[in-house]
Write a structure and sequence with these properties.
Blueprint lengths: L2 E12 L4 E7 L1 H6 L5 E5 L10 E4 L2 E3 L2 E7 L3 H7 L6 E8 L12 E6 L3 H13 L7 E7 L8 H5 L4 E6 L6 E2 L3 H11 L3 E6 L1 H11 L4 E5 L14 E5 L11 E5 L6 E3 L7
Parallel strand pairs: 8-9, 8-12, 9-10, 10-11, 12-13
Antiparallel strand pairs: 1-2, 1-7, 2-6, 3-4, 3-7, 5-6, 13-16, 14-15
The chain binds flavin-adenine dinucleotide and FE2/S2 (inorganic) cluster.
């Protein structure tokens, strides 16, 4: 059940010019959180918070949730100025979250930029449940080294971990789908999870073909409460939630998502 309230920042760290890491004491949210779910955040007393902002849960445990935030606009710039002990108004956990893989098959997780948190959380939970680390391949890409984060946390998981940056400042130079495509081509089977920009998700879905593939969409969420339809995505007619007479159906990422089966999405 979702919960809403004021929670205290246990730790806030500026990792680079544009990434911050937050740990928030929020036992009722942490206890229920599942990989792929998100929270809606406001800063009490700030005018930037007419609408709350959504952030994926990177980890939940010991009564805390961890978030990684990319500083992008007004709200995230305000969040970067917060201190330990400050209060955030948080609602969550929200959204459907990822389904677990159908079997102990190789797992391919592809993260674009700030899409890493829900995938990291999924890996942590699967490892806790005994999923073999040697079957897990995590691909994390970003524009530049300054946009990559949680690297030590991932290395500590002892899984196969690949990096790519657009400018070549860390990992291979180029798009993160390229190393994923190369590896997936060899096995042609496995379960695929991805989170990141739509163009990357479309490419991942194409490579995964008919294999199990779940995508977490980070659409703009104007209201976050299911009332504006501003976050809607097109799904194939026979697979969706909200009927649409134009031959496709709309699903709201904030309500019916953020995770969808790749096979259900109607790519333009
Ligand atoms: C389900 C979900 C999970 C998310 N998880 C994370 C996360 O873990 N960490 C994180 O840093 N961000 C995450 N985001 C994105 C985050 O919500 C936005 O970056 C944030 O709302 C920006 O708020 P702002 O006030 O700083 O920027 P705004 O002033 O609202 O916007 C600044 C600029 O960023 C653009 N923008 C805003 N939101 C998005 C978006 N979702 N995608 C692309 N461009 C956007 C705007 O169009 C504008 O140009 C997630 C989004 C969703 C929907
Ligand atoms: S953000 Fe308004 S309906 Fe989803």
């Amino acid at each position: 059940m979702k919960c809403s309230g004021n929670f205290q920042i246990a730790s806030i760290e500026r990792l680079s010019s544009n990434i911050i890491r937050l740990e928030i004491d929020s036992p009722p949210i942490a206890e229920q959180a599942r990989p792929g779910q998100f929270v809606q955040v406001r800063i009490p007393g700030k005018e930037t918070n007419i609408w709350p902002r959504p952030f994926s849960i990177h980890y939940a445990g010991d009564g805390r949730i961890t978030l990684y935030i990319k500083i992008l606009g007004k709200m995230t710039a305000c969040m970067a100025k917060l201190k330990n002990g400050d209060i955030l108004n948080i609602t969550g956990p929200l959204g459907n979250g990822f389904a677990e893989p159908p079997d102990q098959v190789p797992l391919y997780l592809v993260a674009g930029g700030i899409g890493l948190p829900p995938l990291y959380f999924l890996v942590c939970i699967l490892l806790k449940k005994g999923f073999p680390p040697e079957l897990i391949h995590l691909y994390s890409g970003a524009k530049s080294a300054a946009d990559l984060f949680a690297r030590d946390e991932i290395v500590a998981l002892n899984i196969d971990y690949r990096l790519a940056t657009d400018d070549g400042s860390c990992g291979v130079k180029g798009l993160i789908v390229e190393p994923f495509a190369k590896d997936f081509e060899k096995s042609k089977s496995g379960a695929v999870y991805a989170c990141g920009p739509m163009a990357m998700l479309a490419a991942v879905a194409k490579i995964a073909e008919k294999n199990f593939c779940q995508l977490s969409l980070e659409q703009l969420m104007p209201c976050g409460w299911g009332v504006c339809n501003g976050c809607a995505v097109k799904l194939k007619s026979d697979n969706s939630i909200v009927e649409d007479e134009r031959g496709f159906r709309l699903a709201r990422v904030c309500k019916e998502g953020p995770v969808f089966n790749a096979d259900d999405i109607l790519w333009d």
